[in-house]
Specification:
The complex is a heterodimer of chains A (105) and B (391). Chain A is α+β, with helices and mostly antiparallel strands and 105 residues long. Chain A contains 3 helices and 5 strands; from the N terminus they run ββαββαβα. Chain A has helices at residues 50-54, 80-84, 97-102, and strands at residues 19-20, 36-40, 60-63, 66-70, 92-96. In chain A, strand 3 (60-63) and strand 4 form a beta hairpin. In chain B, helix 1 packs parallel to helix 7 (142-159), helix 7 crosses helix 9 and helix 11 crosses helix 12 (331-342). In chain B, the strands form 3 sheets. Chain B has a 7-stranded mixed beta sheet with strand order 3-2-4-5-7-6-13, sandwiched between helices. A 6-stranded mixed beta sheet of chain B has the order 10-12-11-14-15-16, with helices on both faces. The chains are: A alpha+beta (105), B alpha/beta (391).
Chain lengths: 105, 391
Amino acid sequence: MAEKKQKPGWKELPQGDLIIGGGTAREFKTGDWRSERPIHIPEKCIHCLTCWMYCPDSAVIVKDGKMMGFDYDYCKGCGICEHECPVKGKAIKMISEKDAKKGCI
Amino acid sequence: MGKSNIVARTGNEAMAEAMRQINPDVVAAYPITPATEIVQIFAGYVADGLVDTEFVPVESEHSAMSACIGSSAAGGRVMTGTSSQGLALMAEMLYIASGLRLPIVLADVNRALSSPINIHCDHSDTMMVRDSGWIQIFSENAQEAYDNMVQALRIAETACLPVMVTTDGFIISHGMERIEILDDAEVKKFVGEYKPKDYLLNFDRPITVGALDLQDYYFEHRRQLAEAMKDSKNVILNIAKDYAKISGRSYGLFESYKMEDAKVAIIALGSTAGTTKVVVDSLRAKGVKAGLLKPRVFRPFPKEEIAEALKGLDAVAVMDRSDAINGQEGPLCVEIKAALYDKGLNKPVLNYIYGLGGREIKLDEIESIYKDLGDASKVKKNSVIYLGVRE
């Protein structure tokens, strides 16, 4: 049976409540807070990049000026992208995380 | 020992002088009576080009301590000053400064907390933040205020804990005294250069300062702080030894005045200890075995050492210049009783709450305390007396 890794004791932690090293927020996958996720509908997308501009978590993936999808490691499912999408009928749809996991879109 | 300079300085002037000689990187401060002069005089030094300090006038004491924390975390040597409501306003930031283990030095001029609004001396402000994780050093007079400020810098940077040095508001802060100061070069050599291990402006070793802890880490971080406070006792003693070499003046965790064969003693903080020494001398001349124990370091509380010093007494009186409003006794008295209890010393302890809001404490009042200590019927009651209040 694998041994559970013990968290560091008070003698091992850095002094002054410090975290050593930069950019550590990247290791914290806030995407697991989601209860809803955005789904991209590429056929309807006009690549205006409005969703990318509004996303508060920088979770919209853009490559060569084209909207490519979502970074589900950090997307918190706030739905601002769907709300701001200017396309009639929307090129982004929010679906429940439960449905997404079941595989039905 | 270096050449000493005899000058006339008030407590505030003495502290400002020490700050000038230390020449910190940043002073961020907000004025409040009776501490204003310390940073006001210092601002004059800045304007006159006598120091290289970045002086940051802020909009409140909360901002003052916040700016101090930012500067200290960035790697600077930082000092400030305040009193009473100012210390209260920055209280949340004091806890942050100690948690982040930043060596900030603060001159606290003891002034009563409102309400009622009062600008005069009592110890309620320092006592309010006794759990904040700051080292607290009380000064009896202007000489001690100067000496303590210089030592505080080294203590803070060695223990990696913030330090507050107190003086009694108006009594010491505005009282002119003869003091001896060190040469600028001697102070500069004594404090040396500040070389923090980790600081925000160190791009080779980036850090996150002020992170969140959940239930799984907070306790361990606070345990570290507790250990640091315990360890700081020896740091304070070692630095006092170094300071004695250059100044000729010795400091410890507390001062024992005529305690060697004393049977009755008063324990008092700050300037009242000075007044009590006069009473002790006059009683000794009459054959009374009276003594005084003056705690210098209140945080960390030198429990063992003080209990040891009280061993031979018949009875003890603790003078508290603040009231803990806990339905029992004053803050200093609570700590003394705990110290005695843990050493198995079952001595009568009389508590005298006095001097609140700057109410004067007189020689004959202090003499009456020693009289009570010699009176078996009074001593038996283990009472709390409000000395000097109109009934």
